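Extended Data, record Recombinase family protein
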Amino acid sequence: MRTDVFNLAFAYLRLSDDEKEGKSESASISNQRMMIQKYCEQHGIILVDEFVDDGWSGGNFDRPAFQRMLQQLKLGKANMVITKDLSRLGRDMRESSYYAEQYFPEHGIRYLTISDNFDTENENIMAPFLFAMNEVYLRDGSRKVKDVLRSKREHGQYCACPPYGYRKDTNDNNKLVPDESTAPVVQRIFDQAANHGDSARKIASDLNADGVIPPLKYRVMYRDKFTPKGAARASDLWNYTTVKRILKSKVYLGHTILGKSRKVSLKSKKKVPVPKDDWAVTMNTHPPLVSVETYEKAQRNLGRGAKNYLQYEHVRKSIFGGIAVCAKCGYSLCSSGTVYKGEREKYWFLSCTHQRQDIANPCSGVRIRYADLVEIVKRDLNELLNMTDEGIDELVKAALESSGNADMLKAKKAQLQAAEARLLTIDKMVGKLYADNAEGRIDDDRLRRMVSDLEKESVTLKSTIAQLNHLTKPDAIKKDYERFFDMAKQYTHIEELTRDTLLTFVDRIEIGPKILPDGTSKVTHRNQPYRQSVRIFYRFIGEVKREATRDLPIGATGAAPSTQVGVSILNGTEVVDGAQNHAS
């Protein structure tokens, strides 16, 4: 039998969960089936098969029955597709239009709808409006769902999958109650961490030894419905990261914490993290599984079981981990160098080892002598600690004047608008990338790389926006300076810069690349002069703007006698003036 002679049709039926809840009988699967069968009988069409996506949203086309239908069409099993109306095909305006007006005609498939009178063999003048109205329905439904969820969160109702150790109350689906099967496991985890000092790895090992079912596997076996593919991801063993996640969660104190992630768009399943300040937190909404004392004790013990490499003499004990970063690429600097003739300090450097090839201007290698950086930070911090009350008042006044300057405010406003505009552009770009991926224009690996870069940029932009909003509020600026110097008054003078002291006062330190004299492209000998920027960003107050110049004495940082190291501060940026004491 030739499919180009007879009208062989596939019926496609779809109903979303939202439409089910709305009890839309006209859109029900049985109603769609009846209409299509009757239409085929009246027009002499042979109905070959039907494909049903029951409970699937029209927001995207990654639906199992629809994809199976496309495969059958490629095999030539039918030459026609029929749906009740265009909304059954989908509610995404662009993709629905693509399949109805491009994909099906290009593959010799006639597509028609019964209620909308859409037919690829006719002129469909109203089709763009129908596609648009279907998407309006999708967006309006999404908005209503978000409003309902927001209202529930504000009232402390738990509108998400219950966490391990809890279940939904049988009398109120929005409340959590302890799960008789898993709550004792959570309490055991906290007891081992808080009262026995066990590490997350040991707790996971003990749970595995006792045959305790891990959270995801428990959901697959006893609680939730999973697809075969989803169920296959569930491991039979506990992982230490799962234990740590449980120990860090405040839901076990009886608090509801929701909204920690969001979808990049209503048409995508991809989720991105939400800043902690924007989480929906409601206190004391359900019975706690652990006491506050046990929880806090477990937090203090977290990580104590990890191996402390600082106790080993052969490991350089850097205090700048996660604080000193490359000013060019933003990645943390790592300890590097050699031990020549037993001299460890002399040849100890912090270096950027991140060589990115996927950016226009990859990092070319930033590094600084460790002892030099310690001396720079210690001296700058001591200058702040030793400031008089008058000096502090002048510093605060200068910061307030800077924030209140008309030109400065205008510049900050322009920066803020640019950052917000770029953030909106990124959201649109991410949505388009996923659409392009679905249509085969970009592969999965490229999609992941591009989305990852855009999400990193998005996080940076959000931080910038928050900072710019903060800098336009004089009261907030003054309060931040008061907090910093109230903390600083507990210290008089720092003789030795330690990790604890650094974390107390410093947020991050940006190290710039070496700037060589004009006409020099690389270091050729160990006494060659150079300049290098060091920007220190303090907690609460950020980068301190001061005008000063000073020099470190020769050999002050443990350098060779022939090596001179100087430090100058210009507009808040410290610049090391010195020479290499070995081949760079």
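Summary. The chain has four domains: 8-142, 156-301, 324-385+493-579, 406-481.
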